[in-house]
Amino acid sequence: PPSSSARGATSASRPRRPRGTAKRTLPAGVSPTATPDEVISALDRLADEFDEQLMATITYLVFDALERRITYCSAGHCPVALEFDGGDLAWLVSNGPPVGANFDSVRCTRAVALPDQARIVLFTDGLIERREESLDVGLDRLACALARHRELDVDTTAASLLDELGSTTMQ
Fold first, then answer.
1. Contact, 98 vs 57, CB < 8 A?
2. What is the pLDDT tens value at each position of the chain, 171 positions in all?
3. Neighbour-count burial for 70-81, b at 16+ CB within 10 Å, e otherwise
């Protein structure tokens, strides 16, 4: 999943299965301009049709550069990190269960205005997850690493996070 910002984008880690983007796996009839909740709902339907045991976490996020805002729907995925120019960090938490586990529930899209110089950081649980350790500890570790690297450009930040946090993944 990518790590991105208003200043650029780069891939922060290799994607895990299922491979491909949501747009490539959408059922016929879903518009490319669908809202994030419509995309995730379509993936719920696809999961039901494909395999009753299929579950996946995903955050589908759309960045509107003209409006300086994001809209997103997150299905059981790690929270999105929103890093402000001054170094403060906000977590945009998941707003629904994983794809394939949404038993007749309605998905919703959230919108967040982005101040100048804010960065959006998306990541997999594999970057922060450690055996016998809560995800909160991993999120704290990521927050500290982001604070240390906040003056770096996006590509260097992504590489630094992978070097620092990825080297101890699942130990």
1. yes
2. 333 333 333 333 333 344 444 555 556 678 878 999 999 998 888 888 876 788 889 999 999 999 999 999 999 999 999 999 888 999 998 889 999 887 777 899 999 999 999 999 999 888 998 888 999 999 999 999 999 998 999 899 999 999 999 865 544
3. bbbbbbbbbbbb
Query: In this structure, what token pair is assigned to residue 113?
Result: 């205005």
Task: List C-alpha distances in Å: 67 to 18, 73, 168.
Answer: 32, 18, 38
Contact between residue 108 and residue 95 where contact means Cβ atoms under 8 Å apart: yes
pTM assigned to the model: 0.76
Closest CA to 43 of 12, 69, 21: 21
